[in-house]
Amino acid sequence: MLDAWWKILSARLDAGRAALHRLPEFIAYIAEALWMQALEESKRRSTLRDNARVTELDKQRLEVHAHVLSLREGELDSGLRARPSGLRGSARRASNRPQLERRPIAAKTTT
Fold this sequence. Notes:
Layout: H1 2-15, H2 25-96
């Protein structure tokens, strides 16, 4: 039944705008409501698709950030492994320096 109605309506549309004036007003309102509902649904789906894209981009950014952090962590780790030998050398050099005399600081007495 609905298919037949759409065929008749499409035949009217092919006849031009004047043919739509013969369309009952309530059917025009229903068609307009369906059209508005279809537009709202397309907006909703577009928003969902955009949100999915944004979520995917955020995920990719996080992956890149995690990769950069892991590279920096590796650099810091290798730097720390190289440092102890340098620190041991500094400790040896410090132990070879003559000790400075430490003088006791005289306590001030108030009279």
